[in-house]
Amino acid sequence: MPLAIITGASSGIGREFARQLRRRGVDRFWLIARRRERLEELSRELSCECEIISADLSDTAGIASVKEMLGERTPSVDYLIMAAGFGDFGAQDELTPDESARVIEVNVRALVEITNAAIPYMARGGRIIELGSASAFTPLPYFATYAASKSFVLHYSKALYYELRPKGIHVTCVCPGWVHTEFIDKATDTEGLTRPRRDRLKPLLRCEKTVRLALRASDRKKKIYVVGAFYKMQHILFKILPDGLLSRAWLSMIDKKTLKRRLEKYE
Ligand SMILES: NC(=O)c1ccc[n+]([C@@H]2O[C@H](COP(=O)([O-])OP(=O)(O)OC[C@H]3O[C@@H](n4cnc5c(N)ncnc54)[C@H](OP(=O)(O)O)[C@@H]3O)[C@@H](O)[C@H]2O)c1
């Protein structure tokens, strides 16, 4: 009975991984996120053996609860999907220290701690999918902590790929561009803060297709998978163009009114 452990299972990409893995014959899940009702709803939909783990991964106790469960149950893990994550737009001095720290706790610390804790329970053929982002490839002003957290995920995943390859465990860092999920609503719901115009966040990828392609990349034992032709092209440009030019292109998406108001303070 294959087992998949999925963080961020209450919404978007994580939830879609659960649905598609179920169709691939996975019949045991550990579903992890804060919103218990969402996880219960998904568990009913999957209609198989599901453990609901309602945990806040921005907090030590939440991360510990997942690690303790691994230690107590000693499961055999076939898939580990690390999809919990979020980002807040805003200038570094507009965001509270707590907001920036939570991004690092969830996107970096929880991802590393849970992945490391799960590895001993994986055997040859096991799969790990870490959710990076197209924003991992370049610095992004006004989305700085998020983009840097995803650069961390990218480098950590690549190292893990080489570390675990001799054990027959395959690690793929999936790097989508903008995907149509709650992520975008939450990231841009920062009234008064410096953020991009929502209509500029294009092209939007479909969640179902993003996950389907991500699973195919994992089947093919890809180390990194950038989702979507546009973002693949962008990835190549990121490698050859200077940061300054890329930052200017990115800043052209930032809402002009809030950016102007912000910069006026320094005139
Ligand atoms: N959508 C995009 O444009 C996009 C692009 C590139 C990469 N990504 C990455 O893809 C991953 C999934 O994002 P998504 O698009 O599916 O966003 P989403 O729909 O907002 O889902 C995010 C998931 O993370 C969980 N989560 C957030 N904070 C948490 C916390 N403190 N503790 C536990 N769980 C937490 C949420 O669950 P609860 O709220 O119930 O806790 C939810 O299940 C993220 O790592 C994101 O950075 C997204």
Concise overview:
By secondary structure, this protein is α/β, with parallel strands linked by helices. The protein has ten helices and seven strands.
Give an account of the 3D structure.
With 267 residues, this protein is α/β, with parallel strands linked by helices. It contains ten helices and seven strands. It has helices at residues 12-23, 36-46, 60-73, 97-118, 144-164, 182-188, 207-219, 229-240, 243-251, 256-264; strands at 3-7, 28-33, 49-54, 77-82, 122-131, 170-176, 224-227. Strands 3-2-1-4-5-6-7 form a seven-stranded parallel β-sheet, with helices on both faces. Helix 1 (12-23) crosses helix 7. The structure holds NADP nicotinamide-adenine-dinucleotide phosphate.
Give the topology string: H per helix, E per strand.
Answer: EHEHEHEHEHEHHEHHH
Bound molecules: NADP nicotinamide-adenine-dinucleotide phosphate
> What form results from the Cα inertia axes?
globular
Largest beta-sheet details: 7 strands, parallel
What is the total domain count? 1
Number of helices: 10
**What is the average per-residue confidence, as pLDDT, rounded to a whole number?**
93
Entry keywords:
267 residues; binds NADP nicotinamide-adenine-dinucleotide phosphate; alpha/beta; globular; seven-stranded parallel sheet; 7 strands; Rossmann fold
Summarize the helices and strands and which ones pair or pack.
Layout: E1 3-7, H1 12-23, E2 28-33, H2 36-46, E3 49-54, H3 60-73, E4 77-82, H4 97-118, E5 122-131, H5 144-164, E6 170-176, H6 182-188, H7 207-219, E7 224-227, H8 229-240, H9 243-251, H10 256-264
Parallel strand pairs: 1-2, 1-4, 2-3, 4-5, 5-6, 6-7
Helix pairs in contact: 1-7, 3-4, 4-5
The chain binds NADP nicotinamide-adenine-dinucleotide phosphate.
NADP nicotinamide-adenine-dinucleotide phosphate binds at residues 8-14, 33-35, 38, 56-58, 83-86, 106, 131, 133, 176, 178-179, 181-184, 186.
